[in-house]
Amino acid sequence: MDSLELLQALSDAPGVSGNEAAVRKIIREAIQDHVDEIRVDSLGNLIARKRPASSSAGLRVMVAAHMDEVGFMVVGIGSDGLLKFRSVGGIDARIVLSKTVRVGEDGVPGVIGIKPIHLTDYAEINSVPKIEDLVIDIGARGQEDAKKSVKAGDWAYFDTHFSHIGDLVKGKAFDDRAGCAVLAEILKEDYPFELYAAFTVQEELGLRGARVAAYDINPDVAFVLEGTIADDLPKDKDTSPTTEVGKGPAITFMDRSVIPDRRLIRLLVETAEANGIPYQFRRALGGGTDAGRIHLAREGIPSAVVSVPCRYIHSPAALLSPEDFNHTIQLMTHALKRLPDVWSDMEEKRPR
Prior knowledge:
Layout: H1 3-12, H2 21-31, E1 37-40, E2 46-50, E3 60-66, E4 71-77, E5 83-88, E6 100-103, E7 108-113, H3 122-125, E8 135-137, H4 143-147, E9 155-158, E10 163-165, E11 168-171, H5 174-186, E12 194-200, H6 208-217, E13 221-229, E14 250-252, H7 262-274, E15 280-282, H8 291-294, E16 303-311, E17 318-320, H9 322-348
Parallel strand pairs: 3-12, 3-13, 13-16, 14-15
Antiparallel strand pairs: 1-2, 2-12, 4-5, 4-9, 5-8, 6-7, 6-9, 7-8, 10-11, 11-17, 14-16, 16-17
C-alpha cells in the first residue's frame, strides 16, 4: 500500500492507550520487508532495527512515533444497560455528545448519550457536562443484556472512517498515526547508520512507552514524529496561529516537555531549505511529546520533534493535508541522510 493508504489503515484501526495491538499489527506488516529486526518489548512498544546499508558512521539513531490514541474506558454498567465511562487521555467533553463509538474487542456500536434539549433547563444548556455524567448507549435492554457484549475495563474509541474532504483528509487518531505512517515510510530508505524505529505506547497517558524504549535503545540522537495542533482558523485578534495546515511540516523549538537540541533544529531547517521543502515552526509552547521522556534517558539524548499539522486533534474527526504529510516524509528522509555528515561538527558544538 502507498503512504496515504497506510495512513488510512492506521487511522481506522482502534488503538486507545494500553490497547495498541491492532495498530501494532498493521505497522509490523508494513515495515517487515524494510528492516532487519522487529521486536515488541514488555510494555508493548514495537521496536525495529535497520542496519547500515554500507559503512557505518558509528551512529545509533532513534526515530519515534506513538501508536496510541485518546479514547474511553468502560468503568461500569448500569441496571438500565447504559455504560459509564471515563476518558483515556485528554478529551474535551464538549465534543463527545451524541458521537458514535465502538466498544470492546468486538467493536460493539454505541452512542454517547445526554438528556434531550426538550428536557434540559437553562443552566444545563449553558454548561459543559462532565465525562462522568455521560453514558454510552449500546441499545441493550438492561444490565444483563449489556454484559453479553461488553464489560467493565473495555476500551471505547470514536467510530470515524478515513475520507477525503477537498484537498484534505479526515480521520481519527492522526495524533499520532500520521507520525507512525511517516516513520514507516522513511524505513523504506537506506541510511549509513544504525536506525531504530520506536512505535511507542501510552504516550497520551504520560509518555510512558518512550521512556522505556529510549532507555533500551540508548541512541546517540533521537527524532520524534507527531501529529500536532493546527489552530489556523480565522480569529479577530490572533495573527500567530500555532501551525497552519498546508504550510509544511512543523519543527518544534520548545514545548512543555522538551527544549529540542538547536543543532538538530538547524539540521532540519537547512535540509528543508536545501531541498525546497516548505516548513514552519510550531509556535505554541504547551503540550508535550515523547521527546520529553527520550531526551532525559540515561545521560541525556539530543532530540528534535517534527510534526504534521492537524486541525481538531483529540476529537472524532481531524483534518490534515496530504502535501504536509508527504513533505514530512521528504524532510525526515533527507535530514537523516545528512545527519552523519554534520554529526562530527555537532559533537564539537555539544554544550559543555
